[in-house]
Every structure is written in structure tokens, then in C-alpha cells.
Amino acid sequence: MSRMVAFVLYGVVVLLLSILLMVTGIKFSQLNKEITEVKVHLERISHGGKTSASSAAEGEKTVEEVFLQKLAPVRGTCGNGWSSFQRSCYLLSTSPVTWSKAEEQCRAHGGHLLVVNNVEELDFISKIVELRYSYWIGLVEREHEGHWSWVDGTDFHSTPTFWDKGQPDNWDYRENGEDCGQLHASERRKRKMWNDADCSLWYQYICEAVVPL
Prior knowledge:
Layout: H1 2-69, E1 83-85, E2 88-92, H2 99-108, E3 112-113, H3 119-128, E4 135-141, E5 148-150, E6 180-183, E7 194-197, E8 204-210
């Protein structure tokens, strides 16, 4: 009888050990699977980080290339994004800024705000701009009322004027006056005319750069 009990106990112990080994094996398998998943996840993060860094570098390169393309025109040609007419290149902005900021950005591109030297130039510009928008140009009233000048030093009195009807009026309702020139918005005519405006207002602008010979 005691031998029978011992045999049963031995069987129970073996069974328990088998169950324990089975559970341990399952746990180990699960643990190993989880470790593998963690490794894969870490590899993805690492790869993603490298990809992001690479993309960022490519993005910076693209921005740099675009900026360089919009700098001063190279000898005899205009850069990408610039329009060519006679001996000048023209760049139209896509976002509005104040007059002083517009001139600053044109200087950064190696040029200045548009200086209108003749009617042919004005007609060319009128064809490439949006007629419904106003654009800052390089015309400014600096020393005293009525004394207009071009930003590049061109004598204002040596160039024809194209003021819109009733302009310049230096509208008194403006606290800052109207001391900066712009091409006036109008969809009713094909030629853009001039208007005096408050320099602190935000408009798109036109940069001009003379092509080096």
C-alpha cells in the first residue's frame, strides 16, 4: 500500500514538474517574443531617426538652394523665380509685408524695390502681376512732403510719373501719413498706376535687380 502511495506521489510530482516546465517554457517564449518585438521597435525608431535627420538635411538643402536661386541674378541671366525684361530681373513676392521690410528683403536678394524708368517697363510689370493686388515699389517720400525719390538713387524728376487719378493725396486720415509708393490695385485697366500709401501697411512687393553685363 505504501508503495502504491509512493508511486502516486511520484506521479503527482512528475506531473507538477511537467506543468511547471510547460508554464516556464510558455513564459520564456512570450518573454523572448516581447524582447524581439522591443528590438524591432527600437530598430524602427533608430531607422526613423536617421530618416528624419536625412530628410531634415535634405529640407535644409532645399531651402538653401531656393534661397540661393533667388539671390542676385548671375551674369547675363535671371535666377529661377525671376522675370527678365531689358537689363533687369524682377521678383514678385508671395506674401505681404511693410514697405521697409519689403525693401530689406529685396536688398537681401541683391536688388531693391522696383524703380519704374519708363512706360515700357511699367507695361511689362503690369502683365506679370495680379491686377487685383497692390504692390510696394521703390518710391518713397523721405525729406519733406511732396519730395519723392527712388530707392536706387535715380533722379525722380528724370523718370516719367504714373500717378493714379487724384494721387498722391497723402490721405490725412492716416496717422502715419502716406509716404510710400505702390502699384495701385485695379482690375478695370491693364496698366498699373501709382498710389501713395501708409508705409506700415502690408502689401506684396516687386524686387528689381540689374543683370550684370
